[in-house]
Amino acid sequence: MPLVCVTNEFFDALPTTPLVYTQSGWREKIVTINEGGELAFGISKYPTQQKLAPATQPEVGSVVEINYEGLMFM
Question: pTM, whole model, 2 decimals?
Answer without folding.
Answer: 0.71
